[in-house]
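[job 0412] stage=fold_complex status=start
inputs:
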Amino acid sequence: DQQVKQNSPSLSVQEGRISILNCDYTNSMFDYFLWYKKYPAEGPTFLISISSIKDKNEDGRFTVFLNKSAKHLSLHIVPSQPGDSAVYFCAARGSGGGADGLTFGKGTHLIIQP
Amino acid sequence: DAGITQSPRYKITETGRQVTLMCHQTWSHSYMFWYRQDLGHGLRLIYYSAAADITDKGEVPDGYVVSRSKTENFPLTLESATRSQTSVYFCASSRDSTYEQYFGPGTRLTVT
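[job 0412] stage=fold_complex status=done
writing structure:
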């Protein structure tokens, strides 16, 4: 039972345009959401996060939107750059306290075309 | 500033052998985690630790053992490796109340 879903295994976007990566979740107990970026042969690196009490968080070219009623979040990258080509993982954390780790989606491979 | 390191980076072992993957962090983070990444599954939590001598199971703990005698180290042991444990293993750490986890570079383990 997949609690965090990234339904697009890959996405191709032209350089300079907007990249929109989507993520859906099923567990209403999740209270914090994160996006990680991963290059081949490296560990995931933290990109941006959002608390469930907010609906938007922005950091430079990256903006994450959260729609709690739809249990949906999205990552917008504007403008897209060649270095953005990577696998992006959506992750979520429950609100039960403690440190029970993150639940990850399967990832979306973003390819920025020149 | 070494951050979080994993060793070895690559390992080939045979079915039935014991193998230990090492993880070391220099930030004095309280929490440490082990994940495995497999095609079609994303990253899945194996074990985590909230502090030295405190560990707990994640989503896929079977076949793995962890210990944490020192805050900075969190080794993961496969007591009797199986082919299904062929994977890329990532260690991560985080401070107590912040949710961002910082990942190591990963260990690619192949069990033949």
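[job 0412] summary: DSSP finds no helices and eleven strands in chain A.
[job 0412] exit 0
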